[in-house]
Amino acid sequence: MSTHSSALRPHGGYRRLRSFQVTEIIYDGTVSFCDRFVGKRSRTHDQMVQAARSGRQNIAEGSRASATSSQTELRLVNVARASLDELLLDYEDFLRQRALPAWGKDDPQARQVRGVGKENPADQSDRTDQADARAYFRWLNHADPAVVANALICLIHQANYLLDRQIAGLEKQFIQEGGYSERLHAARLEERRKQSANPTDQSDRSDRSEKKPCPACGKSMVLRTARKGSNAGSQFWGCSGYPECKTALPVQP
């Protein structure tokens, strides 16, 4: 394995992230909600489904990208967060426009939905997504659209809370470590800095040209480094017409 490959950070494993698990339930719940309560020809139907899907997909893509770029991972998780905010507004609009009740933070049913998340903390990675989804079945499959919408609103708030924590952690990690591509970029900049500070460390020739022409043929003079002989390693001005013209001049101090 190459040294570059060994520098890759651990990545993937998004299915074990609590944020991914919750957004997957939101996505599935939104598809069902829109099919049941929003006209399939409605633009809102497609927008809500796409926003829910974006929330889930960008968490997964960010996790996969984490091996090579912390910045890309951070950007994608922020996109997921923004998509869920858009979806939240759609559910709130649905309730308001139909004069349906919205649960308050302390509503008994809202507290029950939040309680499911507390019973299934993020470190319980051995449980299945299907088991988690079944825990919300009585709300997400309710005949009353207000109950379904409010339950999904609770889940979106929970997902946003998890994503806010995830983003804060990624920001800290990015500042302290960066990802593989960020470290490569930093190393490249450092190498360029060293080369600029030590021009004699360049290879046997340079693109720099002497202002004056070759005194023998008139072509430009090029800075070169001797590779052989007693002057190996020292620089001199050689005619760019070499080997036809072998004019050489010393580099003035």
What does this protein structure show overall?
With 253 residues, this protein is an alpha+beta fold. It folds into 2 domains: 184 residues, de novo design (two linked rop proteins) (Up-down Bundle); 52 residues, no CATH class. Helix content is 58%, strand content 9%. It is built from 9 helices and 4 strands. The protein has a 4-stranded antiparallel sheet with strand order 1-2-3-4, with no helix packed on it. Helix 5 packs across helix 8. The two termini are 47 Å apart.
Keywords, separated by commas or semicolons:
single chain, 253 residues, alpha+beta, de novo design (two linked rop proteins), 2 domains, 4-stranded antiparallel sheet, 58% helix, disordered N terminus
The total count of helices amounts to: 9
CATH topology tier name of the largest domain: de novo design (two linked rop proteins)
Helix content: 55-70%
Main beta-sheet strand count, sense and barrel state: 4 strands, antiparallel
Give the SSE string.
HHHHHHHHHEEEE
Question: Please, what is the CATH homologous superfamily of the largest domain?
Answer: 23S rRNA-intervening sequence
Strand order of the largest sheet: 1-2-3-4
User: Could you tell me the number of beta strands?
Assistant: 4
CATH class of the largest domain: Mainly Alpha
Strand proportion, as a percent range, falls in: 5-15%
Rg, Cα atoms, Å:
31 Å
> Could you list the spans in which at least 5 consecutive residues all have pLDDT below 50?
1-10, 122-128, 201-210
Overall SS class: alpha+beta
**Span from first to last CA?**
47 Å
Describe the global form. rod-shaped
Return the CATH architecture of the largest domain: Up-down Bundle
- Structural domains: how many: 2
Mean pLDDT: 82
